[in-house]
Amino acid sequence: MDDAKEGDRDARETAPPPFRAAVDALRAARLRPEIEIDPTRPPQRLAPYAYALEAAVVADDEDLADGRLILLHDPAGHDAWQGTFRLVTLVRAELEPEMAADPLLPDVSWSWLTGALQARGLSYGEPSGTVTRASSHYFGGLSERPAASQIEIRASWTPREGLGGVPDTAAHLAAWCDLLCQIAGLPPAGPGDGSVVTLPQRRGPQSR
Length: 208
Known about the structure:
InterPro entries: DUF3000. It comes from Streptomyces olivochromogenes. This is DUF3000 domain-containing protein. The two termini are 25 Å apart. Strands 1-2-3-4-6-5 form a six-stranded antiparallel β-sheet. Helix 4 (105-119) packs antiparallel against helix 5 (169-184). It has one domain (3-184). It is built from five helices and six strands. The chain is of the alpha+beta class.
């Protein structure tokens, strides 16, 4: 058994019931076929209990965007979270340089995250994060490579807890996958997503 699967088993077997229920909901969620998702080893020092997923948006064998979603749980509560659960994410995709130069891109990108949560009717609090855009130019032996631009969204928010003190983690995962697909430039998948503004320009396959 690899480390990620071992960590997955440990998270479900040794954690309190609300966390186990939240993790089980993540594992059972049904997602768009373009999403390839797997458990990965979570960070060890952010909270007493943690579970992590990594995902990529793949269409026509092309990696369009990728990211990681981490579920944190502190049964004693956390002042900064204003709750006992916290979701932490990183998503990224490559862009055409012209799109990366748009001065409105950071604000629009942050609205993709909040819009994805709102479109699913999710209640959340204490959102925070950063939007980073970076450009790479190649020289010398790498000079034949075209310039590359990338957008990266790092964010966290507190999902509101429902019955039994368990947040609707499956719905939050679905919203996060909506964000991944949006940053990848895919069209909306279903009802409730019609107002999504997708990324108009992006680059080809990414080199990681």
